[in-house]
Amino acid sequence: MKMQLSKLLYAIGILLLMSCKGTAKDNIQTITSTQQVKPNQDQIDFFNKKYFTTYNLAIDESNLSDHPYFSYLDCKNEGYFSVHFVPKEKDLQLFWSHDYYKKEDFNTYDFEKDNRKIEALIKNNLNAYNVFSYFIKKEYLDSKDGCTLESIWLTKNAIAEIFLYNLKTNEWELVKKKSSKTLPPYADNNFFISHFPNLFVKQNKAVNEEKTFPSDLKGSWAVSCDNGLTTFNINKDEGLISLYGNSIYIKVQVEKRFENEYILKFKQIADQKDWVDTSLRITESEISKDKIIGKFFIKKDGKVELHWEGLYNIKKQKIDYTGKDFSLIRESDGENPILLQKC
């Protein structure tokens, strides 16, 4: 009887084990059928040094990328991929797409110098980017005319595998597969934002859509009118203000929000002396022109109450000139908001 009972229990155990194995197999199939597949041992590490060529913004002689990237091509082995550093926020997107080359003459510009410049800008600020790899396997490459960036084509049934770099695990995660007619370097900001909107910072519509009006204000204000070097001068929609003593002056965009309420945005550097300390110097292309740097209210007695916020530095992802580095805060003994009298 005991022998029969043992055989029965053994048979039940075997059935349960087979059942568990079947469930585990089904689970694996379910996971790998989704678009989000975790990396495996055979997956390419796109950050491996052997694949790195150089950081670029120039794709070819007539096309510029709107974000930094690097690419790699090997028709016999890995295939073709590009790694894209796509800014999460609008201000940083605008920096790369508009401001980086703003003052350059492309007739004389040396694009080979971009590598070090771009690396310095993104190296210590990687959290501000979503890093993608746009990968085409070798079987989807038509290299009958040669395996070069200029001669390569995609087959009609080409599939792109899109990976996202996980900064916490330091691993590449497959986030999407899609048919592709686009060669890897040509995927732009809009491509990634439209396919992965949740990975990007959504703009505050309440702030962005709030109406402002042209400023009609004229005048000059200061903490003390006896000090004519650090006055806040306004002429309608443009103002001039000292950031640091009489060493740095900036032009600001003045916009009217409500009756007697105005906002300020950075416009450009008006003057910056050579003797300004390196830590205080500003690079115009690094300062956001969209973010509000201050707002002020015209009081009944003609005085101004200035609420200063500071300049948003896109490169550093921080606000500069928030404290006593700002002339008017220093003159008002560190007080903010600052009360200015009309001069």
What does the secondary structure layout of this molecule look like, with pairings?
Blueprint: H1 2-32, E1 56-60, E2 63-74, E3 79-87, H2 90-99, H3 114-123, E4 129-136, E5 141-142, E6 153-154, E7 159-166, E8 171-179, H4 189-195, H5 205-208, E9 213-214, E10 218-222, E11 232-235, E12 238-244, E13 248-258, E14 261-272, E15 292-298, E16 304-308, E17 311-313, E18 318-320, H6 327-331, E19 338-342
Antiparallel strand pairs: 1-2, 2-3, 3-4, 4-7, 5-6, 7-8, 9-13, 10-11, 10-19, 11-12, 12-13, 13-14, 14-15, 15-16, 16-19, 17-18
Number of strands: 19
Mean pLDDT value: 80
Given as residue ranges, the uncertain stretches (5+ residues, pLDDT < 50) are 1-41, 204-209
| Strand fraction | 25-35%
Termini distance?
110 Å
Widest β-sheet, arrangement of strands = 10-11-12-13-14-15-16-19
